Amino acid sequence: MPKLSWPELHGALTHFPIACLILACVFEIGAYLLRKPEWRLISYWMLVVSVIMAVPALATGWLTANRMFDQAPSLPSVVVWHRAMAFTTAGIALLLLIWRTRTRDRIGGGALLGSIVALVIASGAVGYTGYLGGEMVFGAAGAAPINQNSTSAQTLPKEAASHTGNPPSVSTQDIQAGQQLFQSNKCLNCHAFNGAGGNTGPDLTHESLRHSDLDWQIAHLKDPARMSPGSFMPSYARLTPDQLKALASFLVTRK
């Protein structure tokens, strides 16, 4: 059985509490509209499960972001918003569960309507959180194919050093330095390369077939979102001009 990476583990854990929270909202509204008080018991236990399962979902999400962007000076805005909305949603659900537990779920009138409104808000928030998660996964990939069979290996395959027909402005020294930067900046956390690496960003095995222009690669490394709208890849503008050229040289010779 292949070992799950942090993004894959987070994805496996996060959908269950989302579904339970939305179901809690559905049964709560149904109990009120259809006069079925027994549905409120289902709503309560769905809320319990969603709060419990939110703990590993939040923990793996936090570790995933820290692992993916540990070399970046700051987290991309979409990641910050995704994380903030996830914790906000969990907080609303937890407070509502504490309230319903302390009152033994015997509420009516305005309190009952308040419970329904809180669940609707929490459901909307978790939906928006999921949307941001989708932007992170699919928005970053764009139209590029992603290697779904990649692993989370942290070392480059030996084949990475092979190249032929390099552009005149690209030297072997730059390519070798770029390969080291590719590894030291942990690009494999997000990108697949020769069957190894992550699957949240485009597969870079044949990057020269997508973008063979050295200047484009440098501009993309400095400001990914400008060059690839929707990308949440962190900026590498902190690298020196020589380092940027080296990393771009490595990428434009991947065939």
Describe the SSE topology.
Blueprint: H1 6-33, H2 38-68, H3 77-102, H4 109-141, H5 172-184, E1 192-193, E2 196-197, H6 207-210, H7 214-222, H8 224-227, H9 241-252
Antiparallel strand pairs: 1-2
Helix pairs in contact: 1-2, 1-4, 2-3, 3-4, 5-9, 7-9
Structural class: mainly alpha
Low-confidence stretches: 140-165
Per DSSP E runs of 2 or more residues, the count of β-strands stands at 2
Shape: elongated
Beta fraction of the residues?
A: under 5%
Whole-angstrom Rg = 23 Å
Main sheet summary: 2 strands, antiparallel
Number of H/I helices: 9
Describe what you observe in this structure.
With 255 residues, this protein is mostly helical. The chain folds into 2 domains: 6-141; 158-252, Immunoglobulin-like. The protein has helices at 6-33, 38-68, 77-102, 109-141, 172-184, 207-210, 214-222, 224-227, 241-252, and strands spanning 192-193, 196-197. Strands 1-2 form a two-stranded antiparallel ribbon. Strand 1 and strand 2 (196-197) form a beta hairpin. Helix 1 (6-33) packs antiparallel against helix 2, helix 1 packs antiparallel against helix 4 (109-141) and helix 2 (38-68) runs antiparallel to helix 3 (77-102). The chain starts with 5 loop residues before the first helix and ends with a helix.
